[in-house]
Design brief:
Blueprint lengths: L13 H15 L4 E2 L5 E2 L3 H10 L3 H8 L3 H15 L4 H20 L1 H7 L4 H16 L4 H20 L8 E3 L10 H4 L5 H6 L2 E3 L20 E3 L20 E3 L20 E3 L20 E3 L18 E2 L15 H6 L12 H8 L1
Parallel strand pairs: 3-4, 4-5, 5-6, 6-7, 7-8, 8-9
Antiparallel strand pairs: 1-2
Helix pairs in contact: 1-2, 2-4, 3-4, 3-8, 5-7, 5-8, 7-8
């Protein structure tokens, strides 16, 4: 008789293995018991970590973690990995930055609520922020909890400014501290983002921008003046129709090389920053005719920036309200430390209002 060959069993996928562990954990939950010293017996550590990953919201994870000291420790370790705050100095800096953000929003609560018609969702967010600040808790669980509130608060402010029938989003002077990426990935807003041509985020307290900003394929004007930005996402180079980019009065020391991919760019305002060097890719911007770079810390300009093709406009060389052509030597003469920065030129303000 011929022996039948045994067919090889397909190996389970990672999701199947995870589901099997969860089913096993669910069966064993009946054996779990809390003992006096706060340890949890009955479930292995990796299964407990897996349960956290399947909880639907951070609030559920927080509630679960508060039940037991061991659970708090496991949850803290997962959050440390999630936010990349591996060392103690990194965590201290992140906590301090988050607390400054909370203080800024709470100090402007009345103004924000007034501009948003006392939105009930914003009122709830401010209440939770105030409670969190009073609690003075500094573990990763509460850090994550605060992050969720801060994202929801900023998201709500921006949503209240969205007009689905408009091609412009005006969020100036809104006290924004972040631009949550969830807005740009919301399928109910995909049509709105796909046709947006003007985005005003100036005069806020933004410290970073989401990479998803590069998906705004129809964007012509992006105004980020007067924020606290130190970097631009490399995805900014995907904005092929952008012709006005305004990032003056921020904290940039460098610009991404991808800025040279903005093939439609005509106006670039980067004055009153901390720029030490300009990327040579700026010389690839063939349509650029106005470059504002006064009041930085530049000591040289890229060789491929041709003086005869650029029109430099600086407060210091505007005579009788008219801007003049400048040589590289005159440009470098306008570089001053950020603390000596002057007010924006009237010419640029008129340009942005067009």
């Amino acid at each position: 008789m011929k022996r039948r060959r045994k067919s090889k069993k397909a190996q389970p996928s990672q999701n199947q293995r995870n589901n099997a562990r969860l089913e096993e954990a669910a069966r064993e939950l009946t054996q779990v018991r809390l003992v006096n010293d706060g340890t949890l017996q009955g479930l292995p550590r990796d299964v407990l970590g897996l349960i956290f990953s399947y909880l639907p919201t951070q609030k559920d994870a927080l509630s679960f973690s508060l039940a037991n000291r061991r659970l708090r420790q496991i949850h803290n370790e997962r959050l440390i990995r999630k936010y990349g705050l591996i060392s103690e100095p990194q965590r201290k800096e992140a906590f301090a930055t988050q607390q400054k953000e909370i203080d800024c929003l709470l100090n402007n609560e009345a103004n924000i609520l007034s501009k948003n018609k006392h939105d009930p969702l914003l009122i709830a967010c401010f209440k939770r922020l105030a409670q969190s600040k009073d609690a003075k808790l500094t573990d990763m669980t509460h850090f994550c909890f605060n992050e969720e509130i801060l994202n929801k608060l900023n998201e709500t402010i921006i949503r209240n400014r969205i007009d689905q029938d408009s091609y412009k989003l005006e969020c100036s002077y809104c006290h924004l501290t972040r631009f949550p990426s969830v807005l740009l990935t919301d399928p109910t807003l995909s049509g709105y983002w796909s046709r947006l041509n003007s985005l005003f985020l100036n005069n806020n307290r933004l410290a970073s921008l989401p990479a998803e900003l590069g998906q705004l394929s129809e964007l012509n004007l992006l105004n980020l003046d007067h924020n606290q930005l130190t970097t631009l996402p490399s995805e900014i180079g995907q904005l092929s129709l952008l012709n006005h980019l305004c990032i003056s009065y921020n904290q940039f020391s460098t610009l991404p090389q991808e800025i040279g991919q903005l093939s439609s760019l005509e106006v670039l305002s980067i004055d009153h920053n901390q720029l030490i060097v300009l990327p040579s890719e700026i010389g690839q911007l063939e349509k650029l005719y106005l470059l504002q770079i006064s009041h930085n810390q530049l000591t040289e300009l890229p060789d491929n920036i041709k003086e005869e093709n650029l029109f430099f406009d600086f407060v210091s060389i505007v005579i009788d309200g008219r801007s003049n052509h400048a040589t590289k030597a005159e440009i470098l003469a306008t570089q001053t430390p950020p603390q000596l920065a002057q007010e924006p030129s009237p010419k640029r303000n008129r340009l942005l209002q067009q």
